[in-house]
Amino acid sequence: MIRRLYSLGFTLAFVLALPYFLIQALRHRKYLSSFPERLGILPREIGTGPAGGIWVHAVSVGEVLSVLPLIRQIRRRWPGRPLFLSTTSRTGQELARKNRQGLAGVFYFPLDWKFAVRRSLDRVRPGLVLILETEIWPNFLHECRQRGVPVCLANGRISDRSFRKYHRFRRWLRWSVSLFDCCCMQDPVDRERIVSLGAPPDRVEVCGNLKYDIEPPGRLQSRLAQFRALMQLSSTPFLVVAGSTRSNEETPVLNAFRALQRECPQARLLLAPRHPGRCAEVAQLLTSHSFVFVKRSELSNNVIPAGENPPAEVILLDTLGELPVLYALADLVFVGGSLIPWGGHNLLEPALFRKPVLFGPHMNNFREMAQHFIQAEAGIMVQNEVELGTRFIELFRDAGSRRRLGANGYGIIRAHQGAGARILDRIASVLSQK
Questions:
Q1: SS3 letters across 145-195
Q2: What 3-state DSSP class applies to 331?
Q3: DSSP letters along 267-292, please?
């Protein structure tokens, strides 16, 4: 009965949202190409190999980045099992396809209708499904249970906002959450929350955060040399990278950067909105603030745009998948999604390169990570744009503090690695019982 009501509610929600999807499809060509896969109509090459593979689901870019090292470990541990990767977002799909080497298939996760779920499972024929973070899809979980396919939640977390929402529907969710064969949660708070939602305690354990198992991007040095030439960074005395910024966040970042420019007129800013689709909006903002800027997509290899002498004050990153490399070129990093009530973003990507990190007060989605950075003096929380500009100036003046913050951040990564190995052990335990 609960599942029927859920399916009806899911269909009604889809119908109500349909005008939005149609507008996005017509204006931005979104969803059109992916819709067949979301209905379970997968590419022909999927399903041609042996059954019993491992299906990994990562929602978007952040989850894909965090799971890539784990995928490599899975491939080494179970070389005979086909490995599949699905995503929900378009940007996540693009990144997954760029890193599809060794994968038997990359596709979109099905919409949670029984017919779409069954089509996808019929083609993939998995022996285990691994879902990143917290994706609870009742029809998918039920169909996997009916087929005897174990489902594990990996790198599980439940943010404050999600927990409040889930808690209101905990009686409805209890049945669905109980269908996970194992839940590998990031920290004790996440474990307590998912148990309160209905996960059997003996199937839940704390395995740590996969994001700490971060690895340097491939071909790092050659790519860094390319970007230095491409963006004319060799003559830049101080580069600030503002990564994963959100709407209403770029203005305070730009105002803080203006304050830094009064101290260091040759400073430059690399501004990377979380979603490249917002770059037209951000470009208008840069124009209204009278910044000289250039889009990354306008820079072709080894070609310096005419008139860029001196270089543009701001580089607008409107391409996908390059930010983790570009952090390595920064003198100072601000991680976005944190000056506004969004929940923050990953601090580890710049810390991997020993870069000093600033972030705002809204780090709900990365609460434990932010606490680690503050306690270890590896990062600085700022409350507003005035404080952000002040910290820009202070850290520009104090190279020693920048080095200390960066070294402490790298130490945090080293101290908290190992989640991937613990998750693999749990997967092996589940597989041994089937």
A1: HHHCCCEEEEEECCCHHHHHHHHHCHHHHHHHHCCCCEEEECCHHHHHHHH
A2: coil
A3: -EEEEEESSGGGHHHHHHHHHHTT--
Cα–Cα distances in angstroms (integers) from residue 42 to residues 70, 128, 356, in the given order: 24, 18, 44
pTM of the model: 0.82
Cis peptide bond prior to 310, omega within 30° of 0: yes
The model's pLDDT over 268-302, given as tens digits with 9 standing for 90+, comes to: 999 999 988 899 999 999 999 999 999 999 987 54
- Spatial separation of the C-alpha atoms in residues 313 and 327, rounded to whole Å: 17
Q: What is the mean pLDDT of residues 44-48?
A: 86
Q: What is the DSSP letter of 88?
A: S
Question: Distance between CA atoms of 76 and 63, rounded to whole angstroms?
Answer: 20
Q: Is 208 left (phi over 0), alpha (psi -120 to 50) or beta?
A: left
Residues linked to residue 240 through DSSP beta bridges, in sequence order? 269, 332
Tell me the H-state helices in 318-365. 323-326, 348-351
**Pairwise CA distance, residues 413 & 66, whole Å:** 13
Mean pLDDT value of segment 242-270: 97
Distance, CA of 59 to CA of 90 (rounded, Å): 10
Q: Spell out the residues 6+ positions from residue 81 whose beta carbon is closer than 8 angstroms to its own.
A: 52, 53, 54, 74, 127
Distance of alpha carbon 392 from alpha carbon 342, whole angstroms: 22
Interatomic CA distance for residues 163 and 328, integer angstroms: 35
Domain ranges of the chain: 49-208+418-432, 220-415
The pLDDT assigned to 168 comes to 85
Cβ atoms < 10 Å from Cβ of 101: 7
- Nearest residue to 141 (alpha-carbon basis) of 188, 100, 173, 176: 176
CATH class, 220-415 region: alpha beta
Dihedral angle computed from the Cα positions of residues 399, 401, 406 and 411, in that order, rounded to the nearest 10 degrees: 140
CATH of 49-208+418-432, one of 3.40.50.11720, 3.50.50.60, 3.40.50.10860, 3.40.630.30: 3.40.50.11720
Is 203 a residue whose pLDDT tops 90? yes
Q: How far apart are CA 240 and CA 315, in angstroms?
A: 10
Q: Which residue has the tokens 């889930």?
A: 166
pLDDT at 339 over 60: yes
CA distance 250 to 339: 10
